[in-house]
Amino acid sequence: MQHQKTFDTASIIPLALRLVVGWTYFSAFWRRLILENKLIPEEAGYIGEKFNHFLPNALGIKPIIEYLVTHPDALWINMVAFTIIEGIVGLAMIFGFFTRLMSIGIFLLALGILLASGWIGTTCLDEWQIGILGLASGFTLFLTGSNYLSLDAYFINKKARFTSTKWFQFLGSGALNLASYKRTLLVVVFFIVGLTLFTNQYFHGGVFGTLHNKSVKPKLEITNLKVDNNELSFDVFRVEGVDVYGSFLIGISLQNESGKYLLNLDGTNLAKLPPETISNYYVAKIKPGVHSMIIPLGSKARIRLPISNYTDFQKSAYTLTLTDISGLTWTASF
Fold it and tell me: Distance between CA atoms of 257 and 264, rounded to whole angstroms?
């Protein structure tokens, strides 16, 4: 009798974790599709733009993200599929249906979140925490399965034929004989811990050295500067800063080596730039705002600006300066 009471208590232990983790993933589906449709590419809040924010500092999967954000149709299909998978995995976990299979889904989803966006988080390293806790939770729920208030337990108690199969024990719930897998399980544990420490250090310097947070202030990269045929052109790529807030560019200037301004645009000028001067590469788009040029996180564009005094461009060194509303500046010479 005492053994039975102990078992019943143990069976409840993973219940809170299962329900909370299940809701965490199902709520992503709920927010994006039910409370508000965030799968419409033409509307503000499109989840594809959020995905684009991950691009600059993703770990290992950056080429995949870049391919998707440069192919809008493929991106939309993947965002829809990702949202549906999160909904199915989360809801099935809440109900405890094929718990171990769903825990593998949670582990993989969390790994994707960690690698793609573990560097994002203005104050609490939000995305990194979500990723590592998802990894640990998915592994834990695989070991425990669902033994209380779950569909797995219901079918087991009803002695449904499929619950007696070996594959159900590994994909659903029920007792697992893991004695012979002790070393393998320890390897997984140390893999999760090692990945936690590695990503904490890689993204944030959180283990040793100097702490850094790439979400605190905007950073722009300027490349491919060129002056040709009365036109200045360059690529600008925003690689750091808050993901929910753009960089507001209020100045673009070009000087020669003697300090003479050959081009000097302020926020009012940038807000009135015609659309053809900005050629965006990704779904997160650089565009003129009300009082400035808005540069979202992860956006990249080719900027082309006409030059009226092209005759002043002799053989010389030139310096391009971009000025943010915060006072930050970025320069590049050519």
Answer: 15
Backbone φ and ψ of 226, nearest 5°: -160, 140
Q: Which residue has the tokens 């310097």?
A: 205
CB within 8 Å of 296: residues ≥ 6 apart: 49, 52, 53, 238, 246, 247, 284, 285, 286
CA dihedral 277, 282, 288, 290 (to 10 degrees): 170
Closest CA to 132 of 82, 200, 71: 200
User: Where do the domains of the chain lie?
Assistant: 2-204, 219-333
Any idea which architecture 219-333 has in CATH? Sandwich (2.60)
The pTM of the full predicted model, rounded to 2 decimals, is 0.88
Per-residue pLDDT reduced to its tens digit, 246-286: 889 999 999 888 788 888 999 999 999 998 999 999 999 99
Least confidently predicted of 14-28, 75-89, 193-207, 221-235: 221-235
Neighbouring CB atoms inside 10 A of 98's CB total 23
The answer to whether 157 touches 186, Cβ cutoff 8 Å, is no
